[in-house]
Amino acid sequence: MSYTVLMVEDEIDFIESVKPYIETRGYEVMVASNLADARLKLKQGIGDIVLLDIYLPDGNGLTLLNETINMAIRPSVIVVTGNGDIEMAVEAMKSGATDFLPKPISFIQLDKTLQRAADNVSLRRELAFYRQAQLRNIDFIIGKSPIMRRLYEQAQRAASASVSVLITGETGTGKSLLAKAMHKMSPRANKPFMAIDCGAVPPSVFESELFGHEQGAFTTAEKRKLGLMETADGGIVFLDEISSMVVETQSKLLRALDEHSFRRLGGNVEIKVDVQIIAASNRNLKKMIGEGAFRSDLYYRLKVVDLEVPPLREHKEDIPELVGFFIRKYNPHRGTNIQNVTPRAMEVLMKHDWPGNIRELNNVIERAMIFCDEAVIDLQHLPVELIEKK
Ligand SMILES: Nc1ncnc2c1ncn2[C@@H]1O[C@H](COP(=O)(O)OP(=O)(O)OP(=O)(O)O)[C@@H](O)[C@H]1O
Ligand SMILES: [Mg+2]
Description:
The chain is of the alpha/beta class. It has helices spanning 12-24, 35-43, 61-68, 86-94, 107-135, 146-161, 175-185, 203-211, 228-231, 247-259, 285-290, 296-302, 319-334, 343-351, 357-371, 384-389, and strands at 4-8, 28-32, 49-53, 55-56, 59-60, 76-81, 99-102, 165-168, 193-197, 212-213, 225-226, 236-240, 261-262, 271-272, 276-281, 305-308, 340-341, 376-377.
């Protein structure tokens, strides 16, 4: 698992000597040269480990340390103190720093300290992962591979930070599910979660669905109707398949996001709302920007946090657990009591490339359960295409 080190430091010489070293140790390094910048980066979920200088242009590093303590997922903070500044070091440790390092830094010591901090982060992630899942009773958090854990953790951070999120990934990878899970994990969990598929509604109707309309706004508008942005106030609007949104509507959405307000169709009152937007797409929006089909300013406005759901073929180690999950899910529905999958059937499932991702796996298992009269799913219950490929 890789970790990001956020260096909060304004001394150029220090950055130039230490940053390359940390990178050679396998960490990704980001630099914030003052507290304000560091806050912004932490809010975006950047920084598993923070290497924090005390004296910064806009204040004392220890104030930032105090702020990190209340974060949903706390980074490990290593405080960099002046040599001999024992008091400051003690103060930092009392305030919850993982460690301190006196300047000038010894690379050997830095290495050890980073390693300890990384272990710390990994433990905390694990705990937070289970605590959250338990707390919210999220039974579909299936996938303990590093890539999926990392995704859930980023999702959790974005959910607690209430920022706009863009979820991308191939079809069937679990984007819609993730959006719902984020709602459950977020401080907005007790407020509405309103989802709309931007491709399923014709553009003319879509705007009225999103922003609402006044009576008489168009011929069939017999009375005032509130849109999703208004009914979801305090909660989350999930814009599924955002790539299908026409450019004109994109502009209106962008304006609404920038100003936290909008007008109903045919209305002239500005309506203020507090909604978090989660958008999802299985198309390449960057490419669409190039073709003029998607506004780049909206793209950047949406992807304050960018969550990439990996295709199943990139986390095949999760297949056995997913299979178990689907069997348990369908047993009560089908009145079956299937217990397992034979090793040779599992081998086939592990070998398949799953272009339809988790949805395809779900369907294959559901289908197998229809054909299976025994307690275990075997080769003959799987679709022939899968077997032949083997
Ligand atoms: N991690 C997971 N654990 C259990 N089930 C999952 C997981 N991810 C996806 N699924 C299941 O797989 C199916 C597809 O998931 P989902 O609809 O969220 O995919 P999607 O990425 O939104 O697809 P599309 O791009 O087609 O909209 C659903 O039945 C969902 O419940
Ligand atoms: Mg979906």
